[in-house]
Amino acid sequence: MLFNSYEFLFAFLPLTLGGFFALSALSWHRAAASLLALASLFFYGYWAPQYLLLLLGSIAVNFLTGKAITREALSGQDKQASRLLFAAVTLNLLVLAYYKYANFFLDTARALSSWNAPMLDVVLPIGISFFTFTQIAFLVDCREGKVKEQDAINYVLFVSYFPHLIAGPVLHHAEMMPQFARRETYRFVPENFVIGMAFFVVGLFKKVVLADGIQPYVGPVFDGGGSPHFFAAWGGALAYTLQLYFDFSAYSDMAVGLSKMFNVDLPLNFNSPYKARNISDFWRRWHMTLSRFLREYLYIQMGGNRQGPFRRYVNLLVTMLLGGLWHGAGWTFVIWGGLHGIYLVINHAWVALRERGVLQFPSMGMIGSVAACLLTFLSVVVAWVFFRATSLNAALNVLSGMFGMNDILFPAIPGLDIAHWIGLQVNANMEIDWRQIGWIVTLLSFAWFLPNSQQIVWRWVSGGGIANKLRIRWIFTGASLSLLLLLAVINDSRGVSEFIYFNF
């Protein structure tokens, strides 16, 4: 079920909200939590009922194992707790490897040897990467004695909670399970509902109008199979860069908004990443909860920066390579992760050299900030080519065009002969797609110069006196419901599209 589908907007969501708060009003908090858990499981099973058993099995095994690990750790049986943790993490990774990476490994083995291994008929269960990583973090925290609550219903909710289950954020038990145990969660709070509606409608607008609006300019470049020229390659790469930005931002906003309607705060997962001035800042803003997971449960566990610069850079590279593989079973994703690992190594080395005084540059103020932002952005765009391409050859074809290796031909523009001024060839038959340029310029302006969703919503919430705020909120609620209906109609007329991160 998709957040932008009629079934979700006009059936699942109102029925779930109504049932949850009806039971809460009767002080049946346990029943309300159970209803929300069942609704979340139904939400997942609506896509493919057979994989609901996989999710339930994963939840049951990890919950019971987590309790056993905690019991052994608290009784001083550290070796037994560590063995249980190792076995549970291995089992989780084996299940993930089978469903997500089995054919990738077989295909790689076929390419490197004469083994004619048959490909497996495996369908990737939606959201498996998210609920697997979420539970691995839970198990590790059980071993370290950080888990304070182990309630079965709250754990089911923590893992399967429908606003985050399909595409994140990657949740931490300590920030979620206590919220399901609070009495305050089980009462209708108009302010939270309106804030949630604001986030949800902003996210729906980003998805239906912005991300889906620029999407038609992506496929012809990445899926066409040819060698795009300079302008076509950059047009397609920038279109995908912006489609992915607004698509993932949309899902993140909608997840936060939906959860807020139930008085549950999800961690923010997206914070204007294209405004970043270096690649480290980018990863503090893009998929923030995944970055946190990779840092805490992989990078730091491997030693982080505690064993010297060389080991630190190796840890960064390994972390990002595995982060790339987490996103998809293909060498293009591995290369994407490797590029970001190299970017991070360069960034950290640059900072270290400046701190030691080896590199000294005068402050360039605003010009320097803009240049740093552009350099970071262009580096990210180049890496996104591998993220989107269906094969390594397709990625190299697009990059060849972007770097001018497939000819740089200028269109003929009446009264403006740019190519003549710089001595390059003009293609009189080449037409400019002004609509594509308009989309790219508009969405870049939104990403670079406008406040993001949380800034817009919190400014609105905190402004004015109490009476004025109430009046504005109820006006906004009516406007939001009207806009929600309009966006739903537009979305349905185009055909309901999946979010990009559903594939990961």
Low-confidence stretches: none
Strand tally is 2
Write down the overall geometry: globular
For the largest beta-sheet, the strand count, sense and barrel status come to: 2 strands, parallel
What is the structural class? mainly alpha
Count helical runs: 21
Portion in strands: under 5%
Overall domain count: 3
Helical fraction equals 55-70%
Distance between the termini: 16 Å
- Computed Rg: 25 Å
Chain-averaged pLDDT: 86
What is the chain-wise order of helices and strands? HHHHHHHHHHHHHHHHHEHEHHH
With strands numbered from the N-terminus, the spatial order across the biggest sheet is 1-2
Provide an overview of this structure.
- Helices cover 70% and strands 1% of the residues.
- The protein is built from 21 helices and 2 strands.
- The chain has a two-stranded parallel ribbon.
- α3 packs antiparallel against α4 and α14 runs antiparallel to α15.
- The radius of gyration is 25 Å and the shape is globular.
- The mean pLDDT is 86.
List its traits.
504 residues; 3 domains; two-stranded parallel ribbon; mainly alpha
